[in-house]
Amino acid sequence: MTELTKQDLLYKGKAKEMYSTEDPEVVWVHYMDQVTAFNGKKKVQMSGKGAANCNISSLIFKDLTANSIPNHFIEQIDDNNQLVKRVNIIPLETVVRNMASGSFERKFATEHLMKFEKPVVEFFYKSDELDDPFINESQAEALGVATPAQMTTMITIALQVNKRLKNIFLNMNIDLVDFKVEFGIDGTGNLILADEISPDSCRLIDKSTGNSLDKDVFRKGLGELVPVYDEILDRLKTVEA
């Protein structure tokens, strides 16, 4: 598969660039050294950030594949590049929460990091212009964004991912507070996990120190981000070895 080469730019997002390849069903993903927060309002270049996320996401997707969770990952090419299945992205962010934080904590005035008895699953409509508003099943259906059946499948897969990620991070002495995933429809019509899973899309807390090990370090100005991501990668390599 690695004989494929990067061709035309298809899409440039906040953290990744997507390119076509010689295979119409395969996309080349380049992880950039750019970190953003607050829907792109805060943006900085950080050397090594793209490589850390690419390596972390690749290891996690390999684990999910080994555990029969359908996803778009094909292979990692080098530190900053992957090959993935081409999908039509459903414009929803699926958020799974194990503890109260972020918008949930603000909206419901909960205790910080209050643990839930069962994971909470939420959907947000992907729109920078609208600031990614919360969206429910009937709203998504009315807007033609996703069908109820698709959203049920997304919840099922997201909870499978949560179970696997909690186990991985527990072995790294880390609490998985919450995470965001995206889904797409592949060339055969299957709904599969897409995008990335990295400290950009997860909230992670060190069980020993209580320190954030994710993009909150950047959001809240808590210190240097790349060394934190490198620490996650080092721990992940140990448990996935």
Automatic annotation (TrEMBL):
GO biological process: 'de novo' IMP biosynthetic process; cobalamin biosynthetic process
GO molecular function, one term: phosphoribosylaminoimidazolesuccinocarboxamide synthase activity
EC nos: 6.3.2.6
Location of the SAICAR synthetase/ADE2 N-terminal domain: 9-235
Keywords (A to Z) from UniProt: ATP-binding, Ligase, Nucleotide-binding, Purine biosynthesis
Pfam families: SAICAR_synt
Catalytic reaction annotation: 5-amino-1-(5-phospho-D-ribosyl)imidazole-4-carboxylate + L-aspartate + ATP = (2S)-2-[5-amino-1-(5-phospho-beta-D-ribosyl)imidazole-4-carboxamido]succinate + ADP + phosphate + 2 H(+)
Family to which this protein belongs: Belongs to the SAICAR synthetase family.
Protein name from the UniProt record: Phosphoribosylaminoimidazole-succinocarboxamide synthase
Taxonomic placement: Bacteria, Bacillati, Bacillota, Bacilli, Lactobacillales
